[in-house]
Design a protein that fits this description.
This protein has ten helices and nine strands. The protein is of the alpha/beta class and about 250 residues long. About 40% of the residues are buried.
Amino acid sequence: MQLVTFEKSDSVAVVTICRPQVRNAVDRATAEALSEAFRAFDQDETLKVTVLTGAGGQFCAGADLKAMASGHPNRVAPDGDGPMGPTRMLLGKPVLAAIEGHAVAGGLELAAWCDLRIAARDAILGVYCRRWGVPLIDGGTVRLSRLIGHSHALDLILTGRGVTGEEAYRMGLVNRVVEPGHALEAAVTLARELSQLPQRCLRSDRLSAYEQWELPMDEALKNELRRGMEALTSGESATGVQRFATTRKS
């Protein structure tokens, strides 16, 4: 069976971790397959949005600790891909996480890497690797603080406790909460909605939002303008303005 599947439907792709027997824990080969899938998505001009999910009603239980214990650890190096695969990539297009079951340890880091997270109400998110002495090295300490603030992030990072989809939503960690069994459906629906929007402007604003973290305010504003001008001069904005002018009622 494939470790990771990559399915396309019109302009939306679904990437699925297929190791349900270990709650979709990611070993080295699976991490490499995830990286390959997301590179394929980023390079495919026919695709606009992708959804990351897990098979068998589980998102991802993190790195495969049994594989690590048997002497087959995930790749850990300062350059290249992260231990979980794509967590060091900044793609040019959005990725949504569809979370059922557990998104814990490295699985939570994968979810935090995504642009938006749609979770079942009874999903469990947490830094479960805390109890095994395994650190967050796929962006968890960075992205959690940026997504939900330092206080909420430390609550998760220090205690290792699990939170439901409902509590994660109140923290701001999850963007949408749905009934159990419907996370993928909701994520694909949202992905299709995003794919219908003017893409040049959407991608430009998205990248500016990421790039600003590394820049002082004045440089961030200049970068926003630079990217915005690229969108404005592409012709996409002019088309949108004209559509607005001809369809809006006076």
